[in-house]
Design a protein that fits this description.
Blueprint (H helix, E strand, L loop, with lengths): L1 H31 L2 H8 L4 H7 L2 H10 L19 H13 L6 H15 L4 H25 L6 H19 L1 H7 L7 H29 L6
Helix pairs in contact: 1-2, 1-4, 1-6, 3-4, 5-10, 7-8, 8-10
Length: 222
């Protein structure tokens, strides 16, 4: 039992460090937040940073990514290939919007992401290379197959960015949405309804693109 308790205590200490780092890095930036004040806020020993994260940079990477969940937004896109497009879209938006249920954590993550763009450490570029671009490529592949195209063209990229852009707006504009229409994100159920609506809007966009291509005579069999 003692070993189990030690593991749980360790997990708790690590989680406290990540959340303390998220708050302080979001408020002060990578250079402004010190490891000592992070540990004080987390109620952890300074040596815990080296033990769990290696160094301050490792802790920053954890704070930058982990609070959004174990699975990156849209990471399951590659598994949706066998589904009908409307169902795939529902799962996409469900997964993508899940972190919005985390409330204050998500606000802090967005604040940290905005700060990273102004004061880059390389974490944002890593996220683009490791998560965002593969997710985009997977969505582009889905759209290309559905539209019956021989290959990817710039309009498929436009469509993919437009579809995901609807969901991204609710992260980037989280404070605006919360002030203008707070009922949209008031509960976990509200977030789920939002995902369903965005899936419907995305389906309309895809069908509209299919009709446009058919009208131009450049759409293959679907």
């Amino acid at each position: 039992m003692k070993d189990t308790d030690d593991v749980m205590d360790g997990q708790d200490a690590r989680s406290r460090l990540v959340m303390a780092a998220l708050r302080l890095f979001a408020e002060k930036g990578y250079e402004g937040a010190t490891t000592r004040e992070i540990c004080e806020l987390a109620g952890a020993n300074i040596s815990a940073i080296r033990y769990y994260f290696g160094d301050k940079a490792g802790l920053y990477r954890a704070a930058f990514t982990e609070p959004m969940g174990d699975t990156p937004c849209g990471a399951n896109l590659g598994t949706y290939a066998e589904l009908a497009m409307p169902e795939a879209l529902k799962l996409l938006f469900r997964d993508f919007l899940e972190p919005l249920k985390r409330g204050e954590e998500t606000r802090l993550v967005m604040k940290l992401h905005f700060r990273e763009m102004i004061e880059p450490t390389g974490a944002w570029q890593e996220a683009i290379d490791a998560e965002i671009k593969p997710q985009h490529d997977a969505l582009v592949a889905m759209l290309t197959r559905y539209l019956g195209l021989p290959g990817v063209d710039v309009d498929v990229h436009r469509l993919a960015f437009s579809i995901i852009g609807m969901a991204v707006h609710f992260y980037v504009g989280l404070d605006v949405v919360s002030n203008v229409a707070p009922e949209m994100l008031g509960s976990a159920q509200d977030v789920d309804v939002l995902g369903e609506r965005l899936a419907d809007y995305a389906w309309s966009m895809i069908e509209g693109e299919a009709r446009r291509r058919a009208g131009q005579g450049d759409r293959g069999a679907s």
